[in-house]
Amino acid sequence: MTESPDPARFAHVTDWVFDLDNTLYPHHSNLFSQIDAKMTAYVAELLTLSREDARKLQKELYLEYGTTLNGLMERHKIDPDDFLEKVHDIDYSWLVPDPVLGTAIRQLPGRKFIFTNGDRGHAERAARQLGILDHFDDIFDIVAAGLTPKPAPQTYEKFANLHAVSGPNSVMFEDLARNLAVPKALGMTTVLVVPHNFEPTFSEIWERDPDNADDVDYVTDDLAGFLSTIVEANA
User: Fold this and answer.
1) Residue 16 pLDDT > 80, yes or no?
2) Contact, 72 vs 54, CB < 8 A?
3) What's the pTM value of the predicted model, to 2 decimals?
4) Which end of the chain has fewer surrounding CB within 10 Å, N or C?
């Protein structure tokens, strides 16, 4: 499923921006399922709902507000720190260290950032387990974003202003096409990272963003291989 990158499209890139969940670690690791279950449990306890009703509400909040956290803050004025601590209390050993990915990221020319709707602690623990944490210049998390999640335009603008990132000189890697709309509008090269070999859930993921096909420059199900091709071309 990997589209080979055109080296000319990446030769000018000085800033490499990566989403975390299901992007820097593969979808098949299923790590996010732990977070998803924790969010459902949080909603159930908060509102005294059955698991089924809590999950339904959780998904409604996600679709309406961009993240479950954002929806719970808007509707129920929850403490975001409490939510983030509880839903990210998970087992990171599910992630397998990826030395090929680490080597490729380290050798990319320029700065590298993690840009996530999760919090910094989650990003650090996941990246450390993958063996890639030390290769990043900074992590821009939901707290740095003022708790306003992607795909809100002001969140990308805040990130770009904070780190002096110029759209035409940067590339964004994401697992959700809708989160690439603003980067594309800012002039960034965009790469959609999809599940390996069209896993059964891939069609559902793709169908969630049917209007964003034009916001995607490249699609890959092998991030390490995609980056390695760029590195080798620039060597």
Assistant:
1) yes
2) no
3) 0.90
4) C
